[in-house]
Amino acid sequence: MKKVLITGGTVFVSRYLAEHYVAKGYEVYVLNRNTKTQSEGVHLIETDRNNIGNLLDGIHFNLVVDTAYTKEDVECLTKAIHSYDDYILISSSAVYPETTIQPFVEEAALGKNCFWGIYGTNKIEAEKALMSFDKNAYILRPPYLYGPMNNVYREAFVFDRALSGKAFNLPKDGEMKLQFFYVGDLCRMIDEIIAKRPAQHIFNVGNKEGISIKEWVTLCYEAAGKEAAFRNIYEDIPYREYFPFYEYEYILNVERQNRILPETISMRDGLKEAFAWYQNHSSEINRRNYKEFD
């Protein structure tokens, strides 16, 4: 039985990954502080990743999937782990400065993005730390992730609005585009990487095309069984005061991903899956208050 180690394992991406590999028949180890409910079928390594000690001694992992935020996170794990085949770091598209020519390509210079700040620069340092430790490791840079288990108040915010019967407060004309990636497709991409072992080791991952925020909201309402109605907001108010994304449009070049994973789930079907999970786990979402215009 193959063994996989996943850092975290209790929230959104890491939890989805853990359950994905349990379903595939892997022996799944999750490393966390045990402050949240664990998924069924996992083996808990209860510790802070900054104090792993010898807890990983004697275990060979076929796959390590790390959601590290900082170089210190990476360094603590790489010092504690002694035997593995493949190491994959879930990084972020936040590593690309907003001033870089789009679509962002993997070879583009990295640097501070004014929208993401220290989150992006920490991810850059995490990437560097991993590649200096293991030049054969893989790095994935997704845009906005969505789907079941997403506790971030994004699609859930629109679902809440749809079920309330209220019109949606749409920034301006709603034509700003966003790029997404379904969390299940992220798992499939990892599966393809460990099966094919591509020569490239850094991948932008995401849907092939962006989607306008108006179309995205419309599909969220549709997933909730509602028809979207809009109130266009043209006032000079920061988007994040009433909308779950910054006023920042960008697109990743995902040609490298497409050679390995040519087909991804449609946004319509992905949002249906997200809504199905939301209906039974609404209390797990980290809601925030947004400015109203009613």
Description of the structure:
By secondary structure, the protein is α/β, with parallel strands linked by helices. The chain has two domains: 3-146 and 181-204, Rossmann fold (3-Layer(aba) Sandwich), CATH 3.40.50.720; 155-179 and 207-250 and 265-284, Alpha-Beta Complex (UDP-galactose 4-epimerase, domain 1). It has helices spanning 12-23, 71-80, 118-133, 155-164, 183-196, 213-223, 255-260, 267-281, and strands at residues 3-7, 27-32, 43-46, 61-66, 84-90, 138-141, 144-146, 168-171, 177-178, 180-182, 202-204, 211-212, 230-233. The strands form four sheets. A seven-stranded parallel β-sheet has the order 3-2-1-4-5-6-11, with helices on both faces. The model has no long low-confidence stretch (mean pLDDT 97).
Average of the residue pLDDT scores = 97
Query: So what's the oligomer here?
Result: single chain
Q: What is the CATH architecture annotation of the largest domain?
A: 3-Layer(aba) Sandwich
Radius of gyration equals: 19 Å
Shape: globular
How many E-type strands? 13
Number of helices: 8
Strand order of the largest sheet: 3-2-1-4-5-6-11
How many separate domains? 2
The CATH top-level class label of the largest domain: Alpha Beta
Based on secondary structure, the structural category is alpha/beta
Q: Write down the secondary-structure element order.
A: EHEEEHEHEEHEEEHEEHEHH
In CATH terms, the superfamily of the largest domain is NAD(P)-binding Rossmann-like Domain
Low-pLDDT sequence parts: none
β-strand amount:
15-25%
CATH topology of the largest domain: Rossmann fold
Largest sheet: number of strands, sense, barrel closure: 7 strands, parallel
